[in-house]
Amino acid sequence: MDLKIYAFADEASPSLAGQIAAMRRNHLNGVEIRGVDGVNCSDLSDRTAKEVRAKLEDAGLTVWSMGSPIGKIDVVTGDWPTHLEKYRRTLELAHILGAGNIRAFSFYYPANTDPALYRNEIIDRLSRMAEMAEKEGIALCHENEKAIYGDNADRCADLLTNVRGLKGVFDPANFVQCGQDTLAAWKKLAPWIHYLHIKDALADGRVVPAGKGIGNVRAILEDYRKRGGQEVTIEPHLKVFQGLQALEKDGARSEVGGLVESYPTGDAAFDAACAALRDLA
């Protein structure tokens, strides 16, 4: 079964033209849209979103998912009402862009506290978000990530079994960076996984091309395909790119750009990530 391959193309270039060139050069199906000309996908105007979609479609590309920042606020101190409105706006933009999925997270919680203290509130919030997405015909997809409630397989399973309609995005590198065995995580979570993020990491947390770390990306990809999975998103993280700092919480940042492999440009790093997936697939 052929893979449908998308990417966070803003890692190749901040500009839409540069992103389109990178995706076409690597024969991808489209984008998991995150940043366009320095603007996050959840903050685009209607006019810009329509223009983005038209230019992508002219290039034979589609928007697979909204690579949104939804769920990346503190469950205690974050402004939830305002964030919920941002999510509502992200749903509107998903329709304009033609995206069937929204990537989201399960909220930061205060350091050095028991995440179980915030479980019920987080499940309530995600349940509301999943219900809103379902009414719009869009899939709400939770990604495992450092420093959020769903940073390990057990808590991801808790969310995926208790939030009706919630789907999973499986990121091997993020699990490695949390000290989670990726094969054990995959075995537990596979039934709920909607798509994969193709990213790998070494034991010390440094991000490397897929297949060069300890994330068991090849084995997970093979089993995903055996289960009928087709869609994957390449997330290079091999070179520092515009907007990276805004993606991660202080104290839980990935080490990007400090590898033995050195990439002179975002385009070079992007091409290396795409080539690594092709070698595995």
Structure characterization notes:
This protein is α/β, with parallel strands linked by helices and 281 residues long. The protein contains nine helices and twelve strands. The chain has helices spanning 16-25, 46-58, 80-97, 119-135, 153-162, 172-177, 182-189, 217-226, 266-280; strands at 4-7, 30-33, 35-36, 39-40, 62-66, 101-104, 139-143, 167-170, 193-198, 200-201, 207-208, 231-234. Strand 1 (4-7), helix 1 (16-25) and strand 2 form a beta-alpha-beta unit. The mean pLDDT is 94.
Order of helices and strands: EHEEEHEHEHEHEHHEEEHEH
Strand order of the biggest β-sheet: 1-2-5-6-7-8-9-12
Low-confidence stretches: none
Main β-sheet, in a few words?
Answer: 8 strands, parallel, barrel
Tally the helices: what do you get? 9
Count of individual beta strands: 12
Quickly give the structural class.
alpha/beta
Estimate the helix proportion, in percent: 25-40%
Approximate shape? globular
Radius of gyration: 17 Å
- Nearest-integer average pLDDT: 94
Share of β-strand residues? 15-25%
The end-to-end span amounts to 10 Å
